[in-house]
Amino acid sequence: MSGDHDDYQSEPIRGLPERPPAGETILWQGAPSSWELAKDVFHIRLVAVYFGGLMAWRAHTRMAATGDPHVAVAALVSLLPVALFGLGLLGLLAVLLGRTTVYTITSQRIVIRAGVAITYALNIPFKQVDSATIR
Q1: Do residues 95 and 57 both lie within one domain?
Q2: Do 86 and 59 share a domain, yes or no?
Q3: Based on the domain organization, do 46 and 65 belong to the same domain?
Q4: Which residues contact residue 88 at a Cβ distance below 8 angstroms, ignoring those fewer than 6 apart?
Q5: In terms of residue numbers, what domain contains 75?
Q6: Mean pLDDT of the chain
Q7: Phi, psi angle pair for 11, to nearest 5°
Q8: pLDDT tens digit string along 38-65?
Q9: Are 32 and 101 in contact (CB under 8 A)?
Q10: What is the phi/psi pair of residue 58, to 5°?
C-alpha cells in the first residue's frame, strides 16, 4: 500500500474496513480517474469557461473605457492568477479524492471507501440495490 494515506494502513484489504466474512469474495475493485472527477464532479471545464468569460469581459470593458489595448491586456492578465489558483485547487481536490476513493464489489455487497480529510466506508448490500447499469 505504498503511497496510500496513513488512515488506510489498518485496512486488511485495500478499500475494505475489515476482512470479508467467510463465503464472500471480491469480484472487482477500482478507483475513479482524477480527470473524470475534475470534469464530472468539480466541473473544471465549466469553471475554466467562466474564468475565460470573466477575463474577456474585463478586458473588453477596460478597452471600451480607455481605448488602450495595454490596459485591456493588463486587466485580463490580472485575473489570471485567480483563475489558475481556482482551477489548480479543483484539480488538486480531484487528485486527492481520486487517490483516496476505492470501489469494491463483492459477491454480497458494494463498498465505497472515500474521503480526503474524514474517511468513511459505505456498505450497500445487494438486497438494497434495485438495478445497476454500466455507463
Answers
A1: yes
A2: yes
A3: yes
A4: none
A5: 33-99
A6: 89
A7: -70, 125
A8: 999 999 999 999 999 999 999 999 999 9
A9: yes
A10: -65, -45
Q: Angle at Cα 44 formed by Cα 124 and Cα 52, nearest 5°?
A: 165
DSSP code of 20? P
Three-class DSSP category at 30: strand
**Do 109 and 87 share a structural domain?**
no
pLDDT tens figures, 62-85: 999 999 999 999 999 999 999 999
Rounded CA gap, 45 and 103, in Å?
Answer: 25
Residue type for 35, please? W
- Asked if residue 43 and residue 4 are part of one domain, the reply reads no
Q: Say yes or no to pLDDT of 21 above 90.
A: no
Domain count, the chain: 2
Q: Are residues 127 and 72 in the same domain?
A: no
